[in-house]
Structure formats: C-alpha cells, structure tokens
Amino acid sequence: MRIGDLARRTGLSAHTLRYYERIGLLPYADRDRSGRRDYDDSILAWIAFLGRLKATGMPIREMLRYASLRAQGEATGATRRRMLEQHRRQVRLRIAEFSACLLVLDAKIAGYHGTDTETVDDARSNDIGGQPVRTRAGGARPD
C-alpha cells in the first residue's frame, strides 16, 4: 500500500510515517518501480502497537530501543519482554495516580451538585505528592 493509504488507515500523517521510518521506528518500506514506498499490510499491526506505546507514555528513545531489538529477531525476546514489563509497571502507577485524581474531581463535582459535605477532606484535595498546594490568602481555595 502506498504511504497515503497507510496514512489514511492509521490516522498518522505521511510526514509522521516518513519520520518514523527515518529514525528507525518503522522498517524501510519496499519501493515500487517508480520509487514510491510500498508497504505491506503487516505494518498496520506494528503501527498500532507503537501507538499504544506512545499513548501509554513510553518515551520515543525506548520505542526506538524496542524497535531495534525487534529487528534483531527472536534472540531479543526476553529483553523485549522485560522492557514491556517495566513499561507496564509505569502504566499501572500512572493509572493509580489518575484514579486518585478522579476521586478528587468526583468529590469536587459532587460539591457543586448541592451536597452538604464534600467526600474528600479539603486538605487532601489540595495535596499533591505529599505537599500541600498553596492557596490564596485567608485560606480560600482556588477552585
């Protein structure tokens, strides 16, 4: 498939696809007789996987390392597995942080719906990473 077709099917721009190829995230595409890129359908699964890594916060340098190991074949499987396990731990930590943030947001939203008391103590809702967040003079919250 040509780069325009790949761009449409993946939601990435042709520029991004060329960039990914240039830096090594995508393998070099075969070329047709006219010298245009000709991608195999199998690239779609790889691009989808890269999208998941990106969406979950994997730095591009780690994605490049993973892609390089992948290109080396089966012998690097254990190393790639360890990389993904480490990334999974980081994703789980981020999910836990987001869950805690959602609890605070839910409590604040409940407060705007006329409930008499908020379900999360104001001191906790103004606490990030164990450090109180500064409020305005007089203790007013910056809602």
Radius of gyration: 23 Å
Helical residue percent band = 55-70%
Structural class: mainly alpha
Task: Give the CA-based shape.
Answer: flat
Major β-sheet profile: 2 strands, antiparallel
- Strand element count: 4
> What strand line-up does the widest sheet have?
1-2
Which residues sit in consecutive blocks of at least 5 with pLDDT less than 50? 132-140
Q: What is the typical, i.e. mean, pLDDT? A: 86
Sketch the topology as an H/E string, one letter per element.
HHEEHHHHEE
Task: Measure the end-to-end span.
Answer: 52 Å
Q: Helical segment tally?
A: 6
Query: How much beta, percentage-wise?
Result: 5-15%
How would you concisely characterize the structure shown here?
By secondary structure, the chain is mainly alpha-helical.
What does this structure look like?
- There is one protein chain.
- The model is unreliable at about 130-140 (pLDDT under 50).
- The chain is built from six helices and four strands; from the N terminus they run ααββααααββ.
- The strands form two sheets. Strands 1-2 form a two-stranded antiparallel sheet. Strands 3-4 form a two-stranded antiparallel sheet.
- α4 packs antiparallel against α5.
- Helix content is about 60%, strand content about 5%.
- A hairpin with a 5-residue loop joins β1 and β2.
- By secondary structure, the protein is mostly helical.
